[in-house]
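Lab notebook, bench 4. Continuing the backlog of folding jobs that were queued last week. Each job is logged with the same field layout so the records can be merged later without manual cleanup. Today's entry covers Sodium/potassium-transporting ATPase subunit beta-1-interacting protein, a 208-residue chain. Filled in by technician R.K.

JOB TYPE: sequence-to-structure
TARGET: Sodium/potassium-transporting ATPase subunit beta-1-interacting protein
LENGTH: 208
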Amino acid sequence: MGCCTGRCTLISLCTLQLIAALERQVFDFLGYQWAPILANFLHIIIVILGLFGTIQYRPRYIVVYAVWTAIWVTWNIFIICFYLEVGGLSKDSELLTFNISQHQSWWSENGPGCVRKEAPVAGITGLDSQSYISVIGCTLEYRYIEVMHSSFQILLALVGFVYACYVVSVFTEEEDSFDFIGGFDPFPLYHVNEKPSNLLFKQTYLPA
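JOB STATUS: finished
OUTPUT FIELD FOLLOWS
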C-alpha cells in the first residue's frame, strides 16, 4: 500500500491519539484523578498495540484496537455526563478519585484566567489551621475544558474505528487474494511447465 492509503491514515490517527492521551494523562496526574489515570493508561497501551498491528500488517491487533475505541467512546461519554451533571451525576463528587481524596480536576484552579486566593478560616488558629481557597476570574469553567477534552477523544476514536475496520478489510482481502493465486502453495504453477520445457530442450539436441 502507498502512504496515501487508509493504513497510513490510521498510523497518523494512532500517533495523534497517543499525543492527546499523554497530554490528558499529565493533567489527570496533576489533579489526582485516579479513574481517568487508569483509563488513559489502558488507552495508551491499546493504541500502541493498534499502531504496531497497522505497521506490521497484523489485523488481529487492529481488531482489538477497534473494539477498544468503542469502549473508549463510552467512557468519554460518561466523563461528559459527569462534568455536565447529567443523570444524577455531580462534578463535585469523589467518584473519579475512588473516594480517596477530595481533589478535583487540575483545571478547576489552573484554567485560563483563573486566580487562586486563599483566606484563613475564621476562628481557627495554630499550625493546623485550614484556609479557604477560592478561584475567581476564570474565562472558561473547568468542566467545559474537560468536556472539550472528552469530545476530542470521541472524535479521534470514531474516525479511528472507521479506518481500523477499513484497514482490517483490506488486509483480509489481500490475504485471501494471496491464497487464491497460490501464495502458500508449496508447488507453484511454474513447476508444472518445467518438465515439458526440459523435454523440448532435449529434443532439440537429439542426433539426426
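OBSERVATION: The helical segments are 6-30, 34-55, 59-83, 107-110, 142-180, 194-204.
SIGNED: R.K.
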